[in-house]
């Protein structure tokens, strides 16, 4: 429980007090903008981070409620969707593209590696999992020992082990 909840048994501003919550939020945002424009230390961390820190502190000491319909309906339903295009209208897209080009390349390489790893894992282990009873889609392992042996063989030799019952090929023999 927070400080105010211990003293009053509730938060200072109730979750259904729309005007009180809006007032505190507007004052917090105005204070964050003022600090950002007035002080160098505040400009380094930005007004939005200051506003978030103020909101977290007020929620933790019990001034603001942690959950409210106002947060979901007004803030996330109206204010944020209106604020994103306004912020994008002020940005320099050429500068962003120039500076983020390298990062985008790194991200795309990482994404391709993730996809490739998932595909390799699928093909390496696809025969080890089978649907066995239990409801829609089954679930469960066909044979835990088979999975263990296939994974051990894959780690040891760098390729998938042969399934049980699969005939081994002799060296130099090419099957047709």
What do you see in this structure?
With 176 residues, the chain is mainly alpha-helical. It folds into 2 domains: 3-90, no CATH class; 95-157, no CATH class. 66% of the residues lie in helices and 0% in strands. Helix 2 (18-38) packs across helix 4 (47-61). The longest helix is centred in the middle third of the chain and has 33 residues, at 93-125. It is extended. Residues 133-139 have low confidence and may be disordered.
H-E order: HHHHHHH
CA(first)-CA(last) distance: 74 Å
Average pLDDT works out at 79
Shape estimate: extended
Largest pleated sheet:
none
Number of helices: 7
The tally of beta strands, per DSSP, is 0
In the predicted model, the low-confidence regions spanning at least 5 consecutive residues are 133-139
Taking Cα atoms only, what radius of gyration do you get, to the nearest Å?
A: 29 Å
How would the blueprint of this fold be written?
Layout: H1 3-8, H2 18-38, H3 40-45, H4 47-61, H5 69-89, H6 93-125, H7 144-157
Helix pairs in contact: 2-4
Q: Which descriptors would you attach to this protein?
A:
7 helices; mainly alpha
In short:
This protein is mainly alpha-helical and 176 residues long.
């Amino acid at each position: 429980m927070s400080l105010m909840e211990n003293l009053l048994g509730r938060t200072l501003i109730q979750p259904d007090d729309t005007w009180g919550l809006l007032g505190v939020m507007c004052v917090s945002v105005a204070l964050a903008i003022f600090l950002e424009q007035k002080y160098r230390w505040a400009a380094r961390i930005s007004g939005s981070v200051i506003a978030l820190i103020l909101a977290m502190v007020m929620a933790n000491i019990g001034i603001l409620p942690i959950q409210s319909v106002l947060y979901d309906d007004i803030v996330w339903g109206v204010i944020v969707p209106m604020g994103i295009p306004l912020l994008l209208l002020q940005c320099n897209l050429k500068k962003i593209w120039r500076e983020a080009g390298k990062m985008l390349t790194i991200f795309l390489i990482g994404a391709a590696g993730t996809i490739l790893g998932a595909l390799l894992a699928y093909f390496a282990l696809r025969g080890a999992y089978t649907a066995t009873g239990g409801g829609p889609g089954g679930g469960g392992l066909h044979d835990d020992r088979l999975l263990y042996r296939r994974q051990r063989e894959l780690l040891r030799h760098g390729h998938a082990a042969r399934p049980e019952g699969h005939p081994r090929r002799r060296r130099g023999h090419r099957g047709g």
